[in-house]
Queue: 3 jobs
Job 1
Amino acid sequence: MAHTITVAGVSVDTRHWIGGQRVASAETFTDVSPIDGRVLGEIARGGVGEVEAAVAAAREAFPSWAATTRTERARVLHAIADGVEKRLEELAIVETNDNGALLRSHRRGVMPRVAHNFRFFADWLSALEHEDFETRGHTNHVSWDPAGPSVLITPWNAPLMLATWKVAPALAAGNTVILKPAEWTPLTASLLADIAAEAGLPAGVLNVVQGYGSEIGDALTSHPDVRRISFTGSVPTAKRIAASAAPNLTPLSLELGGKSPLLVFADADLDLAVDLAVEQYDNAGQVCLAATRFLVEESVAEEFTRRFVERAGALKQGDPRDEATDIGPNIHPRQLEKIDGFVRRAVEAGARVVIGGHREEGQYYAPTLLTDVAQDSEIVQEEVFGPVLTLQTFADEDEAVRLANDTRFGLATTLATGDTERAARVTERLVAGTVWVNCFFVRDLRAPFGGSRHSGVGREGGTWSFDFYCDLKNTVTAPNGWNNHG
């Protein structure tokens, strides 16, 4: 059986990458493009055997990689970034075919960010330090010790960018990695393994194991030799991972779902507010951070809705490889059915469809806005992960904050206002890991990222990433405590 496939002219190996070698499996699973439903190829389907091999390879490679100097680790990460930039067009084409996101976005934003992830953490590693401090004359020195083999489980909505957001700091910290990409989008993780090997990353430091969810997920997350687990995905899966990791007390970083609000006050620049609102259809609504709940002050709600409908109506939905396309397909028939089910149930419960509310041909769902929705309704409380937004109104700041905070999530909030004092007051009261004021999706890797409540556990980014991927050590030295014999 052939072990490579060709995607838009790019060759991709469909086998696992374990211990610096390609490893086949007895079984495969089918990878299908959401653009038009065509089969991209058969992918090696791993199980317990492949997991054991990958963890063993990571365990064996760990002491040497952990002992590698910061300078050398940073050099290798920069070399990986060079490889990403060299193959940027190939990565963009493959990922668009695999997950249906816009090719123009992959070319201009996503893949450059992949390279930046490696460069940022390489540079941050080089500068990482705490100031020593004294306690009754004793010196305290804080250091970061590599933790060990790390399991990284990544989602399908931004496969390579979100994978490298984890891989880069884990490698920089001196850990070895077992990467498990989402089964719906496995291809660019395979290309990353090639790029890392070409950059000189030693065998066993990065391993890629492909497979379906719990078939390999449980084996990875319950393994006693795994020292860190980082997961981005759904709340139910996170609970399963936490239960699996609990017997070993394996530290977890969990970036989970969201039901984030966009608060629009009457003093906001309405054109800006509408721009922010339309942006929530990015990636066909498959963005955990998306502000899917519009909360608009009553006095401007009608005008805001009119302008939004006009702008949203101008969006072009279609083939994501077309430069003119604004919204591509949803990832999988199962996800499309889930999205449609949310909308149908909302309408049955009394919601009014302002725009959209139906499937299009293929795996496309029309950009949708629903109003007349109750705060305790499913469509307001649960994550849809599709191009479906709701609109509610509020009378004052207190009601706006109450509605914004009234879900089990707390990932992000977007706020549109022309009043800096109001922005400060409201921001202080919001439950969210990230608050954007008059902007959206501005991400600086120096800042902490994560969610509150059911939106996650822990923070990553900058020093917070190293705090997670390392065991922090404080060395306390007594004053004049040396016994010199020579």
Job 2
Amino acid sequence: MKRGLPFEWIVALRFLREGRMQTALIIVGIAIGVAVIVFMSALLVALQANFIRRVLTAQSHIQLLPPKEVARVLRRGSGGIGVHDDAIVQPPLQRIKSIDQWQSIAAQIQSMPGVVLVSPSASGSALVVRGDASRAISLIGVDPQVYFRIVTIPDKIVHGSPRLTNTDILIGIDLASDLGVSVGDKVRVSTAAGSDNTLTVTGLFDLGNKGANQRTTYVALRTAQSLLGLVGGVSSIDVTVRDVYAAEEVARKITAATGVEADSWIATNAQFFTAVQAQKTSNTTIRFFVGLSVAFGIASVLVVSVVQKSREIGILRAMGISRGQVLRVFLVQGGVLGLMGSLGGCAMALFALWLWQRYARNPDGTPFFPVEIEPGLFFAAMLLATLTGLAAAFAPALRAARLDPVVAIRG
């Protein structure tokens, strides 16, 4: 023991100091590899979270819909009455239907583990008229107290307020431009059921999509039920869950428990979810190959060190140092190289992320997407680099421990 350090640490640090150039180069190489891993991981996680946030702020995690109407073939009976086997059966026109016993179903879903919010809604097609201008719209009736916690319409209001009483309507900015209306104006809404009502525009929203801004409108749930002929009924139930990636599993449980078709955001955005999974796979692949290059770099440096220090190792063995101590000397070198390189890499990654947040901007000056710096990612990278250094050092350390003292000294 010297200076409070075990013998293995003293020898390992001395070996590293004697090969300063090799030590510096491998530490820089490890630092660059760790910086790439941390920077890419943080960036891809933030990008993925931004994509998912954009998708899920415009829709619920799970949506329950009533069963579709299907045409059943009437087979020929004994009296010859029926339909021929080669007859063409056309699908029936899908009418707006209510979910049977939706109140009890909503209560049952709310009590399921993992479910956060349940919001009934009534939606259908309608026609909005203002003077000589008219447009076909998608009318969505909601309970704003609950629904606006699922789909954050208040955050998308650009003019007016998200107030929804029985005589109010929220419309998109592009629809408002087409109709020539603004906040406070009145529009007439009519449906195929023959119902109509005059409503006051209380707010204009921007969903970030021109087509959606031209079609989508929001009214109070009771107003939509009256216009669509769904008195007391709802055409869908929106659900949010605690874990967005478990939405498909929760949807299957809801369908099994209630018998109502439940579609998760994963199923309705299958291509998007596939792209997200591809991003995860590419990130894992990048980290694997960068970590592999770091491991080979550490191993190659320590193999050279064993060859260069064979005489010193032989002398130490002749002085009575055990094979286990020699093994630990080189394991300590690998661990120290991994730890020092990871510290430098984390500092480089932190600086790179700061530069990204400062200079990577949209044309309007806003950041591309927020990047959250998670301490856990840095600690995981440091731990991974240190363990990689130990693993890479094992083979050279084993070779050094097996050196015969006499042969090593003569060599």
Job 3
Amino acid sequence: MADGRLEVKDVEIALLESSPYRFRIEQREPMRVPGVVFASRALLPQASGDKALDQVANVATLPGIVRASFAMPDIHWGYGFPIGGVAATDIGHGGVVSPGGVGFDISCGVRLLAAGIDREALGHDRTRRLMDILDCTIPRGMGRGGLWKLSGAREMDELLVGGARYAVEHGHGVPRDLTRCEDYGVLDGAAPGQVSARAVERGLHQVGSLGSGNHFLELQAVDQVYDPATAAAFGLRAGQVCVMIHCGSRGLGHQVCTDHVRVMDQELHRHGIQVPDRQLACTPVDSPRGRAYLGAMAAAANYGRANRQLLSEAARHAFATAAGAGLELVYDISHNTAKIETHEVDGVARPLCVHRKGATRALPPGDPSLPEDLVRAGQPVLVPGTMGTASYVMVGLPGNDAFHSACHGAGRVWSRHQALRMVRGERLRGELEARGIAVRPSSWRGLAEEAPQAYKDVDAVVAVTEGAGLARPVARLVPLGVVKG
């Protein structure tokens, strides 16, 4: 590093270390804004071939983008946008929406439930029984069906419009669940008519299923509380058992992204848009195609929220059966969305299309859009780590210039192929079990791909997130058992 600049291996981008935990990619043609990467040197993309920083610069070329192309501390290479990427476009000035800024797993997100029992009271035997019940009842794996078999397209349309609210109205949860969900469990503007028949077909029988890859249901315990007052407002206390669920919109969301990326790529010339990467296919938000995608994306987001609601009910049943305890929802937050929000840019409040791809909303205390019981505390920010380390509950901080966004997890450092070369699933399970972490995988291959070594140090990610002024830690949770997708 010389004159404040840091050269990163295999990347043509020069970073300026503008302040601790904040690096800058200077604006240059055809970038319309600079890039800003929240990181430490250790957390910058290091893997050979990881072009995530190039992607930050590419995103900065999108029409209508304002302020900067942002990247969270868990940044790594993704489709078009880096995972951990945040970008907002000004709708009134030709701002675009890009499916690559949302991702294929639309509204993939994290849900945390707090149990009415502590770790010591649960004990070893009931933990094992609980894990066995979850292993038998939680559908997971590629192509697996879900807990709720919808009767047909009409019922699917109602779910795509109603999201978690529709699930609760049909007996899968309680009304309080909705107050502890982002957008109260329903993303407005859903347009089921913009969801293809193929997407509906893929989603009809997958509501209430984890899927595969990095999705999981994890049994956890609150290991440390950093802010007792905020933790209490969230419903958390030291030693408490919790359940964290990470999943999204399954095949339906994937198909929605596939369908709309294909059409947008074919229509780029119609709007005179040039992008440095075809994976950044986009269209003006205020255009028929832009409105069609946002309607389909909202529908898929509602599918993802209903999906997590169904899995919550399965977890509640398991807890009632194995431990005689209930589960209260702490919060449900998505990290793959594009949402219309109002933010101040250059002193003027503007409607923006805010893309968060592998990034979560992080509202600070006092934000009027929070439910009444969280206004004073702020919004819970859920940051899963790995099945061998820890996860965090954080809270948004004021002054966050990345459109109130924060990290969504630890972030990969190994590809899945590299993980398979380095780790054997059977051996990994033995190592985790020896540390008291019960593991219920759907396959040895899938377990190896998600080895803890394949991810960044979540403690370091959280430290940078706080140091950068995005969110601060409230509680740290450690794994007791994991059901892997």
